[in-house]
Every structure is written in structure tokens, then in C-alpha cells.
Amino acid sequence: MHEKINYHAVFLLPPQMMILFKPNIGFLTEHAVDPDKRRYISVSEGAHHYLDIDHYGRYPFPDLPRDYKSAQLKYSEDSLRAYGIVPWWIQIMMSRLTKAFREKDKQAILKTAAELGHYIADAHVPLHVCSNHNGQLTHQEGIHAFWESRVPELFAETDWDFFIGKAVYITDLSGFIWSRILESAAASDTVLRCEKEISDHFRPDQKYAFEERKGKLVKQYSTAFASLYEDRLDHMIERRMRQSIFAVASCWYTAWVNAGQPWLEALTHDSLSDSEIKEYERMNLEWKNHDIIGRKCQ
Ligand SMILES: [Zn+2]
Fold first, then answer.
1. pLDDT digits (tens, 9 = 90+) for 250-273
2. Is CATH 1.10.575.10 the right assignment for the domain spanning 2-289?
3. Rounded distance from Cα 22 to ligand 1 centre (Å)
4. Which of 33, 112, 228, 286 has the highest CB neighbour count under 10 A?
5. Distance from the CA of 265 to the center of ligand 1, in angstroms?
């Protein structure tokens, strides 16, 4: 899902940005999943991907300050990190991307844009904004990957529409991100409830199917179950994915405008440094061979 979102976001950009992003669409797509890979090597990485917003009361969560400094004063850094910091992390990544544009650092622009896209997409997933993030509190384990990977894998290419229009300039970044977070939070009940309702009408052998994946037989939600779920959600996953693509492109565009719309044709730092290559190799190796540190969902 992350790869697809970064990929489609490129086509919403103005030509002045397309000149850099389009030829590097492979990099932006491939590195969309780096932040999840980093969770295998870094304890602090996990908190960047979610927010257990229900920890802070009820929708629309007026007790939780939207501004990081105020939230930190109220709850302490450790406590905030324990329940996730994705809305604030997106803003930190936005400043990094703006800086990279300002410095016209090609590798930093592409790396930061790819990773920013990941966190923005996570914020659009209802189960990333809910403490019952994998249905573990309601015996619905597996629903996380079902919603964000299995259903898109089955329907995105053939049935979903990714013609979205153009990126826009975001004047109030914090307000924009919090609106997406609240949309996700409001949808999380529906995501869980619909799965439960449909499960009541499926025998376990109908709900799951064994399918081949990368040469192995794995237990998956069946296509029939996924199709009914998708109908019951009335295209929610497609809508969240479209909104996510729009948000990623608009954030990339906003960072570029805030950096003074630099000319992207002549850029420095053209190839990966040795330490960057080493970091990617290490992440890939740990990702293949080890378990994630902390919470287990992507
Ligand atoms: Zn993630």
C-alpha cells in the first residue's frame, strides 16, 4: 500500500517538481517502506507510526493538545511516545523535507519525501489511530493487515480509481494533519464492527483461504470475505487511499513552496553515500531476519 501511495502521489505534482520526482519514482516507491523496516533495528521508531488516540478520552479528544509542546507539558515525553506520536512526527518530517529542498540536496529530498509519504499514509489508516490496532482486544487479530494490505492487493489495481487531480498548498499544516487523524479515529469503530458482523455469517473455512505467496502457502482472508467487507465499508479503504495520495502530494508540494520553490534541475549530492548504502543494507538484512521491536503491525 505504501508503495502505491507514493507512486500515485508523484502524478499530482506540478511540472517543476515532476522534473525530479518522475525520473526517481522507482526510488520513492521502493523506499516508501523504509520506516517499517527501521522498526526492526530501532526501539524509538515504532512511536512514529501511530497514535492511540482513544487513550485521551472520546472523540474529538479535546483533552489532547494538538500542539506538541503543550501535549508534552501535559503528559510528558515518555507517555506521549508510549501512545504514539504520528501527527507530530509528520510535522518534523515536513521541516526536514523543507530543509532538504532549501539545500537542494537531491538524496535528502528523495529519502525524506519517500519516508514522509509513509507516515502520512499511516495516519490515514483508522487502525493506526486506535489502541485496538490489530483487533487484539476483540478477537479480531489480523484485521490490521487485512484492511491495509489484503483488501488493496485484491481490488486496488482493477477496481479503484486513482485519478485524483492536483496537489494543493496547505496553509495550516497542523490543522490539516489533525483533520486526517480525526477522520481515521472516527472510522476505526466501523472498520472493526463490519469485520465482526460479516464474520458471523462466514464459517472459518469460508472466511480464510490458503493461498500461495512468495512460494509458501499462507492463510489469508478469502476473496469472498474481502469482497463483502469492501462492499460493507462502502469503499472506505479506497477513499482513505485516495485521500492519502492527495495528502502526500500536497505535503511534498507545500514543503517545496515553503523552501522558496527551488529550481530542481541542478542538484547536488547526486548519489548515495557509503553510509547511506550501509544503512539500507542493514535495514534490509534485519527486516528479513528478525522480529519487529515493539508493536507488531505495519
Ligand atoms: Zn508504518
1. 999 999 999 999 998 877 666 777
2. yes
3. 24
4. 112
5. 31
